[in-house]
User: Which sequence fits this backbone?
């Protein structure tokens, strides 16, 4: 299992290190430098859309991943019910998000942006659920390819908008958001088709007893994730809400936070690979210790290296990446 983990981790990291840095430091950074205030608004609303993100999942993805990894035959049983449930959760999530946005006094422009960002959050959550089925079936190479599909499409769409010279209009933050929505939608359709083919069964039927069972079993995961999301994401929303020049301050904060968020994705990649492996090992009653030690050593080594580099070269990194307020953002990072 250790050899399998290392081989699949190498492929996963290789693909993500090839694609995602270009998105973060090429496309996303370009938009930040081109539209600093608009990006500040976008970043605040993006973080706001994440606050109630747990409503879209309720811990279902982790629950599904663990159970399908241990019992592959449950895919056909779970697929239809959870897919319909995710759609119902999106309606609840959208209502909560828009109502809280109204209470905070968001204007029509922000509501329009928030509507698309909320839909994007649903698509991201849905793709994560679909991919949890693929990793649960131990199809790690396929999942590695799918893990970079959305960002690859975003890079393509945004590159055409930014540098393609095919359009007469000026690039705005809305075009940035539209490109993300289209990329997520295409990715969701492709991954859905793959899981449907693996399941060979899908019916549009609401199974109330099944939904109650899922909610009972996933509630502890949901509560944990909710507190973590508020801890990590509410700061940008508070800055935007409390300060008169909130958009500018959030844009400065976003420079540093975006870098940390990018490095955090390494841990997310590890988790997505390890959870189904742990579930499979538990089912087979095999020793977890070697895999735990190996994964911890790799993550710890990467974390220490990244922390040391960013601490010692924060000013140079920020000056290299951005063109404004780098003195402030280098202190934040």
Assistant:
């Amino acid at each position: 299992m250790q050899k399998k983990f290392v081989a699949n981790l190498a492929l996963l990291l290789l693909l993500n290190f090839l694609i995602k840095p270009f998105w973060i430091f090429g496309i996303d950074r370009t938009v930040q430098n081109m539209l600093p205030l608009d990006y500040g608004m976008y970043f605040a609303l993006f973080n706001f859309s994440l606050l109630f993100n747990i409503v879209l999942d309720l811990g279902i993805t982790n629950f599904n991943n663990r159970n399908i990894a241990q019992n592959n035959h449950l895919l056909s049983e779970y697929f239809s019910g959870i897919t319909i449930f995710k759609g119902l959760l999106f309606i609840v999530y959208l209502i909560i998000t828009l109502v809280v946005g109204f209470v905070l006094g968001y204007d029509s422009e922000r509501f329009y942006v928030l509507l698309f960002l909320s839909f994007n959050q649903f698509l991201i959550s849905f793709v994560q659920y679909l991919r949890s089925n693929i990793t649960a079936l131990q199809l790690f190479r396929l999942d590695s390819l799918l893990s970079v599909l959305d960002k690859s499409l975003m890079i393509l769409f945004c590159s055409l908008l930014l540098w393609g010279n095919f359009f007469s209009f000026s690039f705005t933050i809305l075009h940035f958001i539209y490109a993300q929505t289209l990329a997520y939608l295409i990715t969701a359709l492709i991954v859905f088709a793959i899981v449907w083919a693996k399941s060979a069964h899908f019916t549009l039927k609401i199974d109330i007893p099944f939904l109650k069972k899922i909610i009972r079993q996933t509630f502890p995961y949901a509560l944990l994730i909710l507190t973590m999301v508020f801890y990590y994401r509410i700061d940008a929303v508070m800055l935007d809400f409390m300060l008169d020049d909130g958009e500018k301050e959030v844009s400065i904060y976003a420079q540093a936070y975006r870098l940390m968020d990018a490095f955090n994705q390494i841990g997310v990649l590890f988790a997505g690979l390890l959870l189904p492996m742990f579930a499979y090992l538990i089912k087979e009653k095999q020793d977890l210790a070697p895999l735990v030690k190996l994964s911890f050593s790799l993550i710890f080594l990467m974390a220490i290296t990244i922390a040391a580099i960013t601490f010692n070269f924060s000013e140079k990194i920020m000056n290299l990446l951005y063109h404004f307020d780098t003195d402030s953002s280098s202190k934040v990072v």
In short: Residues 95 and 117 are 14 Å apart (CA to CA). The radius of gyration is 20 Å. Residues 2-332 form one domain.
